[in-house]
Amino acid sequence: MKTPSVLKNTVKTILLLAIPLVAYKASAQVARASAGRAEFIEVEKNVKLHVTDLGEGKPVVLIHGWPLSDAMYEYQYADLIQKGYRVIGITLRGFGQSDKPFGKYNYDVFADDIKVVLDKLKIEGATIGGFSMGGATVIHYVAKHNGAHVSKMALFGAAAPVWTKREDFNYGQWTKEDVNGLIALNNTDRPQLLENFGKIFPANESSVTPGQGAWLGTIQAQASPYAMGQCLATLRDGDLRPDLKKIKIPTLILHGSHDKICSYDLAEQMHKLLTKSKLVPLEKSGHALFIEEREKFNAELVKFMESNTLAYNN
């Protein structure tokens, strides 16, 4: 018969053996609670980008516009996840929750950053979409990296082919001198700059609610003032006509008919330069087409991704 001391030691031994098993089960349960996807991805030393990576299925990569972040796609994420897509929103350096280093902010840098993220995520056959400056960035990414990781492109109110008027490009609403003024205002009264853009962002005063405007304002406030100024210079000087001529993948162009920031004639010029593109006007929208006509925007994007690509030839 075992003595009380022996029984006590036996119980202690059993408990010590059980603790690692309980800890293992607990850790396994925690691991199963998430898909294990990183929220921040390093693109170069000391520079990490915020990445929203949600859902399962065919991937959709979304790039935001100036001076927003990937949070602008909140109502696209919700819809696309429900429809069985994996959504990957990348916030460019200098904006949102991404790092904001001193250095270059141009389409080359942004395109290379996107390439690193998609390399690390091992994405293939995605649709890549971009809004405003993000649309210009997507164009340069597809051209520079020969469509790596993607099979379709979508442009939403894109700031392309050229955002400022030139001697050989008399489209759009902005001159280089206008943008110089925007840069000066960014450096002296950034709240006023954001307020001015807020007034011309929607088609009219009622097409974006005060709540939606406040929500967008909280996203804009996260942007680096330095990055904002540098990106305005990139928008001022950029010319994506050579890039557009290189792109051969099917492309959807969604553009607000009443856009006061990237006017509709820019969409028509993109459509002419892209050999496989479809232009869909959002007739009640300004630049805020992703919320002004959210249902049509989302439906057209899904229809494009599920369509026979041959239908999108010019």
Care to describe what's here?
- The protein has 314 residues and is an alpha/beta fold.
- The chain has helices at 4-32, 74-82, 107-121, 133-144, 176-188, 190-200, 210-220, 225-237, 241-246, 264-273, 289-292, 294-305; strands at 40-44, 47-54, 58-63, 85-90, 126-131, 150-156, 251-256, 277-282.
- The longest helix has 29 residues, at 4-32.
In short:
The chain has 314 residues and is of the alpha/beta class. The protein has helices spanning 4-32, 74-82, 107-121, 133-144, 176-188, 190-200, 210-220, 225-237, 241-246, 264-273, 289-292, 294-305, and strands at residues 40-44, 47-54, 58-63, 85-90, 126-131, 150-156, 251-256, 277-282. Strands 1-2-4-3-5-6-7-8 form an 8-stranded mixed sheet, sandwiched between helices.
Rg (CA only): 24 Å
Helix content: 40-55%
What is the number of E strands?
Answer: 8
Biggest sheet: strand arrangement: 1-2-4-3-5-6-7-8
- Determine the oligomeric state from the structure: single chain
Briefly note the structural class of the backbone.
alpha/beta
Enumerate how many helices there are, as a single number.
Answer: 12
Biggest beta sheet summary: 8 strands, mixed
User: What fraction of residues sit in β-strands?
Assistant: 15-25%
**Overall average residue pLDDT:** 91
Low-confidence stretches: none
| Net shape | globular
Helix and strand succession?
HEEEHEHEHEHHHHHEHEHH
Q: What is the straight-line distance between the termini?
A: 92 Å
